[in-house]
Amino acid sequence: MSDYSAHFVVRGKDVSKSARDYLSGLLGTERRKNMERIHGDIPESNYQSIQQFISDSPWNHDALMEQVAQDANALLGGHSRSCLILDVTTFIKKGNSSVGVQRQYSGRLGKTENCQMGVFACLNLGEKACVIDFRLFLPESWVADAARCQKAQVPEDRQEYRGKNQLALEMVKAAQNRGVSFEWVLADAAYGISQDFRRAVEQLGYRYVMDVISTNRIWDADPEPKEPQRLGALGRPITRREPSNPKAKKWKVGEWVTAQFPKKARELCLRKSSQGELRARVWVTDVWVWDEGSATVPEKHRLVAREHEDGEIKISLTNAPAEMSWEELAHMQAQRHWIERTFQDAKSELGMAQYEVRKWRGWHHHMALVSLAMLFVVKGIRPENCSG
User: Fold this and answer.
1) Cβ–Cβ contacts within 10 Å for residue 305, how many?
2) How far apart (Å, rounded) are the C-alpha atoms in residues 325 and 276?
3) Whole-angstrom Cα distance, residue 33 to residue 28?
4) Exposed (0-12), middle (13-18) or buried (19+): which is 363, by Cβ within 10 Å?
5) Which of 122, 223, 311, 367 has the lowest tally of Cβ within 10 angstroms?
6) Which has the minimum average pLDDT: 189-198, 202-211, 236-245?
7) Contact between residue 137 and residue 88 where contact means Cβ atoms under 8 Å apart
8) How many distinct helices (H) and strands (E) make up the chain?
9) Is the pLDDT of residue 381 over 70?
10) For the chain, what is the mean pLDDT?
11) Pairing of strands 313-318, 207-211
């Protein structure tokens, strides 16, 4: 903890004891980790001091997260399989006062609920993962209500709508600027369905594996669009480009994979663990993405399809080079499991969803300390060592 104490000296006031108490509570034995339970679990703590530390103290969560990212990078970065995993998780809330809350879809519950939504970036290598960045998603209904934002103390520069893709891309750029070393960016279909998002990640210099939905359109060969060379009925030039390759067919990706997978997939080992090999049937092939008639150039991707135990086939697109093996691509696709596991552990063991704050600063302070607690777990630091 002493390595992080400087972040909790603000305007000449040292609040690092409250930071240690809160971290010890997050890492402690109580099942619930709200402020009242943390105070009960840490007898020497002061409830009012903890409440003020989380909700109102002006210590900088961004500066803390920069160090968390760099320390996580020392453990998990710099490897050919190091990856940044992007995902959303929700926090169920009552009422409408908590910053960013509204009725919106919760993937965890599989339905629309009153909740807050955060976009998270997790650095992963093998079976270890740590949150290194996060963004609170503000719905359009919030940014359109200046009085509501002011009451929740949302900073002025954040009182504009940013979509989840924009927030995720901000975090990829932030990780790059902080010197975090990773080869891959992984994301689910919420991001993978966007060709613009995939292209932006590639332009930053990263390989990616991102899921798509069954209705995404692909071509099974290069459509080789030709330039229009004729005039329309009124003498106007035709601008719509048409495919010239008669062998190229456009498909809904789910229908194409369903037709091809049974005869072309093969069983592979995704990874080895203490419980033995994790195996699955996998198919990898080349596909092209192009909006028929557009002036853009068809983009070649590799498609990775993997069958789950329940028979569902997960489909992803990647910009990985042709020489990369099926085994490596299947392994990287399966690594998204670790951010889901990270959320599960953080919520059940580290109090990620058990905060009692309503304002912008409090939410970000809590998430930063949960991220630091998570880093301590990855490092193997025990609760009693937080007092150092």
Assistant:
1) 24
2) 21
3) 8
4) buried
5) 311
6) 236-245
7) yes
8) 13, 16
9) no
10) 90
11) antiparallel
134 Cβ contact list (under 8 Å, min separation 6): 65, 118, 119, 120, 121, 171, 364, 367, 371
User: What DSSP element (H or E) covers 148?
Assistant: helix 146-151
In the predicted structure, residue 298 carries a pLDDT above the cut 70: yes
Residue 341 vs residues 210, 211, 269, 345, 370: alpha-carbon distances, Å = 18, 18, 20, 6, 15
Strand-pair partners of 252: 217
Model confidence band, residue 238 (pLDDT cutoffs 50, 70, 90) = low
Q: What is the pLDDT of residue 230?
A: 58
Check if the beta carbon of residue 286 is closer than 8 Å to that of residue 300. Answer: yes
Terminal C-alpha separation, the chain: 6
Note the pLDDT tens digit of each residue in 47-57.
788 889 999 99
Which DSSP string corresponds to 155-196?
-GGG-S---HHHHHHHHHHHHHHTT---SEEEE-HHHHT-HH
- Cα–Cα distance measured from residue 340 to residue 176, given in angstroms and rounded to the nearest whole number: 23
Bin 6: left if φ > 0, else alpha if -120 < ψ < 50, else beta: alpha
How does DSSP classify residue 250? E
Taking a C-beta distance cutoff of 8 angstroms, is the pair 301, 317 a contact? yes
Contacts of 30 (CB under 8 A, 6+ apart): 37, 38, 40, 41
Residue 342 to residue 331: CA distance in whole angstroms: 18
Q: Is 244 helix (H, G, I), strand (E, B) or coil?
A: coil
Residue 241 to residue 295: CA distance in whole angstroms? 7
- How far apart CA 155 and CA 95 sit, in angstroms, is 22
Lowest mean pLDDT among 77-86, 257-266, 291-300, 325-334: 291-300
10-24 pLDDT per residue, tens: 888 899 999 998 898
Question: What is the rounded distance in angstroms from the CA atom of residue 78 to the CA atom of residue 67?
Answer: 16
Beta-sheet pairing, 13-14 with 83-92:
unpaired
DSSP state of 205: T
3-state secondary structure 60-116: CHHHHHHHHHHHHHHHHCCCCCCEEEEEEEEEECCCCCCCCCEEEEECCCCEEEEEE
